[in-house]
Amino acid sequence: MASDIPTLAINDLTVAYREKPVLWDIDLEVMPGALMGIIGPNGAGKSTLIKAILGLVKPASGEVRIFGKPYREQRQLVGYVPQRSSVDWDFPTSALDVVMMGMYGKLGWVRRPGKAERERALECLDQVGMTAFAERQISQLSGGQQQRVFLARALAQDAQLYLMDEPFVGVDATTEQAILGLLRRLQGQGKTVLVVHHDLETVSSAFDQVAILNVQLIASGTTAETLTPENLRKAYGARMLTRLELPTG
Amino acid sequence: MELGQLLHQMVFDYTLRTIMLGCGLLGLANGALGALALLRRQSLIGDSLSHAALPGVCVAFLLAGESKDPLVLLIGAGASAWLGSLLASAITQNTRIKDDAAQGIILATFFGTGYVLLSLIQGRAGAGQAGLDKFLFGSAASLIERDVQTIAALSALALGLMVLFYKEFKLLTFDPEFLASMGFPRRRLDALLTTLIVIVVVVGLQIVGVILMVAMLIAPAAAARQWTNRLGAMIGISMAIGAFSGVAGALASALEANTPTGPAVVIALTLAMLLSFIFGAERGLLWTWIRSRRSRRRALAQGADRAFAAGD
């Protein structure tokens, strides 16, 4: 793939629920190998942005292109980590089984995962340090372990672009380190990663690039240039900002 | 009746064998689809679907010239149940009424209308023998071979499609957005699964009846969940419990005249659930209690060790 084609190109994207705009006229380009955090206050439309990229919510206008083509032609190139709280972890299944779900798209209709898929799923679990828990019922995992299972499932999708929705929420320190390491490894392999993030204090250490969102795209670019008090004030409001005590730089 | 005599009849009595077969198949299909309905938190849908089917049975009977052909009645029942489920989701989407209330409204409205139609049909001169009242509480004993054939064919169809799309239905139940992100048509799969649930519910109406049909769908799955943490195993156990209860209900109904099958099935299911809730290997109360006792004792022992080590 020629490196001058952006992994992700969003043009004039507007999404509305009923009458209310959730995303307004978003333009964003993400180049291959980028590791980008998406930040913004609650209700800024961060999750909606990811869902719009994945075609899960229908935009009122605008378009999304993955390597120059619409998403429905490029599904196999995109991996997705939904919010952990979006599923019922009491579902009767094992960690390994959840990871294998990441391969359903490539398997296509009706075909069941077999031995090759099983082995690939074990490799993915290994990459997030969860091999020992492969056969564990998912409700018996800690929050951080469940998050790592979701990451392994996305790895099983074997994608070029990964979209992750709040992977750091409610996880332990071990998992946080595991996720940070994984993000760097993916970047090292030339993959592009977009992460919805809520913790402003860790943005600059975790991501090279950042997009600041509050219904509209406030700013985007390298973390050093974009994560300025002024941009954050635009997104979060002045009152909020004084409490945050931003890392300068 | 003596046990030996009963066994002899089960094997050699053609009518009884046919009825048991029909009820067993029905139990298998309901057990399998009930597991998915339960995990999708759609237990209530089984109840509203079966109640919503009643007016369809009556209308089909009248439109088809007082036909008792099982397929005609089932098509009427299925159409009516589907309409009910569509209306329920239309209510949820267009008003501020929540899903459970919408289901309740549909259930009551359709069942009330159906009951009025049923009374009218039953009360008409010459139509007293319509036998539609068996749709209320079910009557396995009144099944004829054609009924059983229809039940068997439709149960097998529903089961077959569920096995075919097992992978897709599993992910639809666990994480529908992830399924959609990979390009599977979520809405169409959703509609297919609902249709399969409509089929097995509607097929069971003449055996178990409108009022208790939800038990046949949901109870085997709820019992099976106590024994395992794997979906495949849960479905298998659920099917076994469903088949056992179906056969037990058929026997009770066939051997003791005037026993309605629905209540007999529910008694068998209650037994299965009771045993599962107490003895279920994964979540049964007994094992949970023993496990928690064991870990408490271990914690106490460790605490004592620490106290001993620290205590000088």
- One letter per element, helices H and strands E, the order of chain B comes to HHHHHHHHHHHHHHH
The CATH level-2 architecture of chain A is identified as 3-Layer(aba) Sandwich
The Cα radius of gyration of chain B reads 23 Å
The biggest beta sheet of chain B reads:
none
* Topology-level CATH name of the domain at 10-214 in chain B: ABC transporter involved in vitamin B12 uptake, BtuC
Total number of β-strand segments of chain A?
10
Morphology of chain A: globular
The CATH superfamily of the domain at 10-214 in chain B is ABC transporter involved in vitamin B12 uptake, BtuC
What's the overall geometry of chain B?
Answer: globular
Give the oligomeric state of the chains in this entry, treating copies of one chain as homo and distinct chains as hetero.
heterodimer
Radius of gyration of chain A: 18 Å
What is this structure, in a nutshell?
The complex is a heterodimer of chains A (249) and B (312). With 249 residues, chain A is of the alpha/beta class. Chain A has helices at 46-53, 71-74, 95-100, 104-107, 115-127, 143-156, 173-188, 200-206, 223-226, 229-236, 238-244, and strands spanning 8-17, 20-30, 35-39, 61-66, 69-70, 78-81, 161-165, 192-196, 209-214, 216-222.
Report on this structure.
The complex is a heterodimer of chains A (249) and B (312). In chain A, 37% of the residues lie in helices and 24% in strands. Chain A has 249 residues and is of the alpha/beta class. Chain A has a single domain, classed as P-loop containing nucleotide triphosphate hydrolases (Rossmann fold, 3-Layer(aba) Sandwich), CATH 3.40.50.300. Chain A has a six-stranded mixed β-sheet, sandwiched between helices. Chain B is mainly α. Chain B has a domain of 205 residues: ABC transporter involved in vitamin B12 uptake, BtuC, CATH 1.10.3470.
